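Figure 3 (text version): structure tokens given as input.
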């Protein structure tokens, strides 16, 4: 379980050792490195028809206030946070750890990675440069590495919690976030409401993740967006554009040697001829995948010349495909493992999302009653 700085205690037996080590505490040094760049974000949000439909306490057009966390990634005022923190924002302000408060605007956000870029209004602050967070390499993370979450949970500004990396890669499917894309860092550092968008840092104070969600039915299971992924999305959002996300319409699961072995030992299961790849569990009706000929229990082994060894790799390769353009997907099919090369033209996830939002906000159709 993650340790909150508010509740961290030392036993009498260890007090002398802690005293000796306090001057070189890696937690303190890490927080000192990243702390000045962490900001509290306050948002005034308009209640949408969809929000009002889900919550009887909300009324369309009302204004609600929410808070989250972010961190500065550009000294000229660019800030990274979660999309769900600033979505539908009417007004955004942020506060530095020094107490200074500024206005900000949403440059762009991406619902499928839960990332957003803000731009601080520094027009009245000639020559002011904001403190920038040091960014790290999330690809080097391993289970057991120390990590520190910095944020503003439940109104407690600039709180620090300590934990470890429980797993450096969890797919959106494993996490249970089917509406999101990509993989996530699992940590036991305590994350609470208001931590969203804040940095997850390594023992050197480098940001290696962005805290985004927790498992609500558990304790000490939180997830962060890997910094390498966030950096790539940031470069697109900063330009006021949304990153491409391809929709194929399939659910997949990793094939491993153990999965294949267990399956092949089952006399009631079809023989699985491969030991790696992404097993197709479902093909959505009318989807690009169905139109191209993908079938349930196909195993994806290659996407556009990129070998695929797991569902994570398949998801990353499929998501990188350009919507509206043909992509090549190689699958093995049947007990013989015959390879099939399929050409698939994926749809645009953002276009699908916008169409669904329109459908949900359309007024109901009133049918005329019987004529008198």
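Below: residues designed for each position.
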């Amino acid at each position: 379980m993650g340790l909150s700085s508010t509740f961290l205690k030392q036993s009498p037996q260890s007090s002398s050792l802690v005293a000796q080590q306090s001057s070189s505490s890696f937690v303190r040094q890490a927080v000192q490195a990243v702390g000045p760049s962490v900001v509290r974000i306050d948002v005034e949000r308009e209640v949408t028809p969809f929000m009002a439909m889900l919550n009887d306490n909300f009324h369309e057009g009302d204004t609600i206030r929410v808070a989250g966390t972010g961190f500065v990634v550009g000294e000229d005022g660019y800030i990274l946070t979660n999309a769900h923190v600033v979505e539908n924002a009417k007004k955004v302000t942020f506060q530095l750890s020094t107490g200074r408060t500024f206005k900000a605007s949403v440059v762009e956000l991406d619902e499928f990675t839960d990332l957003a870029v803000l731009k601080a209004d520094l027009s009245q602050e000639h020559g002011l440069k904001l403190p920038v967070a040091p960014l790290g390499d999330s690809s080097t993370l391993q289970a057991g590495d120390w990590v520190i979450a910095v944020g503003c949970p439940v109104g407690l500004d600039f709180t620090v919690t300590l934990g470890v990396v429980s797993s450096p890669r969890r797919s959106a499917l494993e996490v249970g976030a089917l509406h999101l894309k990509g993989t996530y860092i699992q940590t036991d550092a305590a994350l609470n409401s208001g931590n969203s968008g804040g940095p997850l840092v390594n023992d050197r104070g480098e940001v290696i993740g962005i805290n985004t969600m927790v498992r609500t039915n558990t304790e000490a299971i939180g997830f962060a967006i890997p910094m390498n992924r966030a950096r790539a999305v940031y470069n697109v959002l900063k330009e006021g554009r949304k990153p491409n996300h391809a929709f194929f319409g399939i659910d997949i699961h990793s094939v491993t040697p153990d999965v294949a072995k267990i399956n092949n030992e089952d006399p009631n299961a079809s023989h699985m001829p491969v030991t790696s790849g992404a097993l197709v569990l479902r093909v959505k009706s009318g989807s690009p995948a169905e139109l191209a000929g993908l079938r349930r229990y196909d195993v994806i082994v290659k996407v556009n010349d990129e070998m695929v060894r797991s569902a994570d790799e398949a998801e990353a390769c499929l998501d990188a495909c350009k919507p509206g353009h043909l992509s090549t997907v190689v699958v093995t099919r049947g007990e013989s493992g015959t390879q099939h090369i399929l050409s698939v033209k994926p749809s645009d996830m953002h276009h699908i999302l916008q169409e669904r939002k329109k459908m949900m906000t359309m007024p109901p159709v009133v049918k005329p009653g019987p004529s008198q």
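The longest helix spans residues 349-361.
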